[in-house]
Design a protein that fits this description.
With about 140 residues, the protein is mainly β. The chain is built from 2 helices and 7 strands. It has one domain: Beta Barrel (Thrombin, subunit H). A hairpin with a 5-residue loop joins β2 and β3.
């Protein structure tokens, strides 16, 4: 399922410094992934939303959500998986993430929420290795 109306390029263009240099540390993958997003609102109510990631990188995610999570809100993000997926011992794989809302763009039928992970999914040393010739292009 793809939100064709909410293309990620138009939602949040590349973050450039005043010198025109890209600010993001990691590339984004333009894949649509369902996610459960949880947070607590100002009235201390627990909110649970079924959202879609429009793109995801090691440092953060762009979510399409029906409810608006305010900037600065801490989110708990769960990537749903098959019941037996958690039994497979994969080193470094995650299904729960903590993130902070950085930007929100209100659209007609959804809110586009850009959030930064509290802990990046990979380290910069892994990215720099992948950018070189040490690893196959498919990695």
């Amino acid at each position: 399922m793809r939100f064709a109306k909410y293309e990620t390029e138009s939602a949040f263009p590349m973050e450039l410094t005043q010198n025109g240099i890209e600010r993001r540390r990691w590339d984004r993958l333009p894949i649509c992934v369902p996610m459960f997003v949880r947070w607590t609102d100002k009235q201390k109510r627990k909110i649970v939303e079924f959202a879609s990631a429009l793109n995801i990188g090691a440092g953060g995610v762009l979510l399409a959500m029906y409810r608006r999570a305010p900037i600065g809100t801490n989110l708990s993000i769960q990537i749903p998986s098959a019941t037996n997926a958690n039994e497979v011992p994969l080193s470094g794989s995650v299904s729960y993430l903590i993130a902070e809302v950085l930007r929100v763009e209100d659209r007609d039928k959804a809110h586009l929420v850009a959030a930064r992970f509290a802990v990046p999914l990979v380290t910069t040393s892994v990215r720099s290795s992948a950018a070189g010739t040490d690893l196959p292009a498919s990695v």
